[in-house]
Amino acid sequence: MDLTVPDTPVAAAAAALAAEACPPFLLNHSHRTYLFGRMLVPDADLDEEAAFVASMVHDLGLTEAHRGDAGFDQVGADLACRFLEARGWDRDRIALVEQAIIRHTNLVANDVPEHRLVQAGAALDVAGIPPDALRSDTAEAVLAHHPRLDFRAAMPRIFLDEIARQPDGVFADLEQAVNLSEVMASHPLDGP
After folding, report:
1. pTM of the model
2. What is the mean pLDDT of residues 144-153?
3. Of the four, 14, 25, 103, 180, which is 20 to 30 A from 126 by CA?
């Protein structure tokens, strides 16, 4: 699989926005979300630029620079809408990115390829689902370009902080449904 990302001004601006706001482990997670998603959702009829923007912005609501009063998913979706409106995107493409961000924590697979890409890429990187995908040459190449760094220690802290701030939010729902903080702590990529 080719590890390139969309080469457009908007994609570059989204990557720069994420690089400015994210600590390195979270920035690498955003890149891995897109690349793992492309590996798992190889649809030909995919708006790769929209999927890349959604991947880069999906967790910005967890950062100091962008954290707001709403849940991180809504903050990221609202940020993406403003970002894309300022760049002249039409409403349908903006909604595609907005919904990919809002729906990326759903436990049921999304039908829309761009939504599914962000959801599947994040699930593989955060929870190791599906585990067989982690043993591929492509996954190894993604990890070589965008290593996990201190993801294992840092992401659960951010996750639990978001639950404390948003006890009715999507992370609280995931913790109750699948005990995600423990799943993250035992991710197969991070060893025993």
Report:
1. 0.96
2. 94
3. 14
